[in-house]
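Hi team, as promised in this morning's meeting, here are the two structures we talked about. I've kept the exact order from the run log so nobody has to guess. The first one is mostly here for context; it's the second one we should focus on when we meet again. Sequence first, then the predicted structure tokens.
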Amino acid sequence: MNPTTLPAPTPLSLTTNDGYALTALRYRAVGDLRGHLIVAGATGTPQLFYKAFAEYASARGYTVLTLDYRGIGLSRPHSLRGFRMAYLDWARQDLAAAVDFMAQDDVPLFMVGHSFGGHAFGLLPNHDRVARFYTFATGAGWNGWMPLAERIKVWIMWNLVGPLIIRWKGYLAWSQLGMGEDLPLDVYREWKHWCRYPHYFFDDPAMPDLAERFGRVTTPIRAANALDDLWAPPASRDAFMAGYRGTDWQAIDIDPRRSGLGAIGHMGYFRRKAQPLWSDVLGWFAEHPAARAA
């Protein structure tokens, strides 16, 4: 279906349990309803980046919800200077509110993650309401998993460029570097801290409860990473996804040369040329017994 013929998404306001108002967009399912679907985006990536995927899924029978986490995109305050929040509240509060909103009937709820979205799923207090979870580009964040050249770039960002921008702006003004949305100060600090560890926040002695929390997840998961993803190569994915020890998650390695998709990197999973990947995702969701019944 041509995207121009699809109904426009409906803006929604979601209020989290701690009272923050988020802006989300809901894409209505076209034709027979197969399921509901939430897109759990990457750090510093506005929800409109996922519009093409949301339209693709809605045209195939899925009601799709995208959202901007607090401090980002359409959910950003007037100024990020002085704005305080916990990085993990993007999962524990914001994404949890989206799950509660979408899991309102007998239609199965699915979720697609991107990078941070794969971290967020295990943090959800209501992950059990999601029937299947498919994530792209989820990794441990440690630069030791990256190729040498990228490792050097990331070190410079964390230790030289980032601190200078923080002193200037009071938050990580990533847009000044053309790298995405500006990030609240607390997101920058916590992200930088956890990227010191090979297994991300699982190795942080101040977060001893996370291993048990992730171990309680039983939802079937597929985790796909491109071989040319410099930020989250398969080794980085495997280091993080090992935390989902309570479910039989499946790793998928994407070779851009053999797939014919061209370069994917860390962001190409959701560009229009990646539609064959989207077809695989929706095909797996459609195999769920409740989706077939719907």
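And here is the second protein, the one for discussion:
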Amino acid sequence: MNELEEGTVSSIAWGKVQSAARTGQALVPVVLQDTDTDEVLYVGFANEEALRETFATGTAVLWSSSRDELWRKGATSGDVLVIDEVRVNCEQNSLLYRVRPQRSGACHTREPDGASRRTCYYRRLDASGGLSFLPGFDSAP
């Protein structure tokens, strides 16, 4: 079991934005939201190239700060996210991709039956730092 992704102990990656900045890429955060349910699927980063590719392909393309390369969501998992619209916030320092998942999932983590989880936000954090799975989500076997 991967404790970070399947556990009930909080381990917030406070340095994630600093780490992304160290890639040398000019990045903005991107919230990916299901158009039909309004559920937030996950948060990623995009550079100008990723945004151009998103518009060119009609699918979510981001910048992987961990791999330091373009990330075409679904290229290996099959969990493609088709773009419905791209929005920008008031200060133009973040984007919102409204998407339609082409399969049931968007997260790289899996349900016990092997299906991709529909969102990366499947656990609740409490004030003491504990995590618990939301109803409808189970820990992996």
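Starting points for discussion:
The chain has two domains: 12-103, 111-141.
The mean pLDDT is 88.
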